[in-house]
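Open question from group meeting: does this chain pack into something compact, or does most of it stay loose? Before anyone orders reagents, we agreed to write out a predicted structure and look at it together. Recording both the input and the output here so the notebook holds the full record.
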Amino acid sequence: MNKRHSAVFPMYNTGIVIFFTIAVTLVIIFVNIGLSVNNTQKEVVDKAVDEIDERLVITGKISAFADVSSHKILATATPVKTVSDGEVNVDPEILDVSYKLVKSENYAISYDNIYVGSIRDRTYDSLVEAVADAKNLGLIDSNPYVDTQKPTSTSAFVYWIINQNFDNYIDNNELAVLAIVYADRDRPSSGEQLFIDVNVPEGYVLRIEQDVPNISSKVINFGGIINES
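Structure tokens returned:
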């Protein structure tokens, strides 16, 4: 595995993993057997939790391309950047994206990994351009902007708005976009709940929780809660 990946998520370091596991286990044991947990022990666990903070944050608004007649979202674009001096490896062998759409209290659609890769050899000014290239490169099988045929699967990919070195990392001072093109059966509708996790082997690097807004135009901005903690 590329050594640069160690900077993506601090828990990659074996020592930190062991430290975190022992610290949390001790506190759980103390609580379960009725012993009090002192401030020092709490500080140890708090420090361990801080070490696994997400390494991506949303910058700007999540936007969507929608079909107003069916009240469904066809594609979304989430602008992201790294926190501090971090970097995130978006190679599909490292990164995955899980997707869950809660349509009602008793029915949800869920996928463990919809991530298909990145487009890193150029930058883009719009989701329209990126989706067109994603189809040309075989990352997706249908372009919802122009094709009458609907995508056969829900797929996530990354493209860049600002890319300094055109490698497979979202680096400090770069601006990337997590794009998702939805298959017909998976398309979010107004009032439904959308949950997206961007994960590396050590845990998630970004978590999104969104209520789908009212779909009244082809281009919409999401409201609701963005969970970054």
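Observations to bring back to the group:
The radius of gyration is 19 Å.
Residues 39 and 157 are 43 Å apart (CA to CA).
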